[in-house]
Design a protein that fits this description.
It catalyses: ATP + [NEDD8 protein] + [E1 NEDD8-activating enzyme]-L-cysteine = AMP + diphosphate + [E1 NEDD8-activating enzyme]-S-[NEDD8 protein]-yl-L-cysteine. The protein is α/β, with parallel strands linked by helices. Helix content is about 35%, strand content about 15%. The protein binds zinc ion.
Length: about 450
Amino acid sequence: MSAAVSPAPASSSMNRKRWHNLRNILERKGPFCKSDFTPSADNLEFLQNTCKILVIGAGGLGCELLKDLALMGFGDIHVIDMDTIELSNLNRQFLFRRNDIGSSKAECAAKFINKRIPTCQVTPHCAKIQDFDESFYQQFHIIVCGLDSIVARRWINGMLISMLNYNEEDGSVDASSIIPMIDGGTEGFKGNARVILPGYTACIECTLDLFPPQINYPLCTIANTPRLPEHCIEYVKIIQWDKENPFNCALDGDDPQHIAWIYERAMERANQFNITGVTYRLVQGVIKHIIPAVASTNAVIAAACATEVFKLATSCYDSMSNYMNFNDIDGIYTYTYAAEKSETCLACSNVPQVVNIEDPNTTTLEDLIKILCENARFQMKQPGITTMMDGKNKTLYMATVKSIEERTRANLTQSLGELGLKDGQIIMVADQTSPTTIALQLKYNANEVEMA
Ligand SMILES: [Zn+2]
């Protein structure tokens, strides 16, 4: 079969019927239309033949998004996903079948949609988002994310912000350089959908404190004063497994024998401390850091995201402003609020942000890196730091390149004063959470710096 995007294969009367409901919205004026909306048959034409959408992720949300967008008339969709299909995906990732296990999610999803909905052509990319540069992302009108990784979200957010142009006169964002990003996220029975106009509305980094850093229980609690079933499971995982080495191999979260072993030991420990709530499922969750995926939550969030894509693409209605929370743990609860753009946002504020340092004589470079990783504002993973000193670019520390790591390791235990970093100094930080290097300004609270 040919891969033609248009026209739709059916006869024109069939075709009219097929898009009847969309035409009602796109060819008539209504009280809620945006001011720049012109009712016309061209609107549907634009969705089918011109508008280019990128869907990031072909998992639980991605399958829903592709189906929704294709049925809403979008004709040109690209999808990126680096993962392959696993058996446990099949209960909710409905574009995949048992025979697809082991194949690329992006490719299988595209094949399914292209066959089933001939008015839509999906182009798959079995790759990481980091494999593409600005010129790739530039081609899309709207980007919609169904990701489970915060790092990936932050990266694409940073990419779209790095693509903004600013007007020379007043520093305002050039509206034509904005590619809207619709972001959906789900976690069990909770989900959210948001509309991000990079440079205009709150971005992912503006609201970074909404994502709590990943929980790591203190080892002393796990070892001595467990209070939660999770503490018992972590104890067996971290301490008992290594001590007893039951299967003479590393722990594999997908091996039911390993999970069963941990479950039994964790139960024993829980009984010892009168803790209830250790279940096989919880053991799986703690070991693999997974939260069960719920198909209905994905469906609701994807529908909300697809609706926002439709509204932005056609101007038929105002966009949601701008952050919707959804929860169906106990009945259904949802609300939408306008998340505010942060003046101190690392990604979109367009000025170097300040890192406050108590005392540069006692704060080591390692402490600074710890601040960048643990502070809710930064939440970096493995920051590499460089700075300008005496007109030269100097690498202070970089863990990602072995030779540089070895050469700069000794700096870790030196204080910022000893390293010659001054109050107000700009440091450049590279991290996997951003596609670009971020400029940060050191601000010392103690006045005197003893220079080495
Ligand atoms: Zn921001």
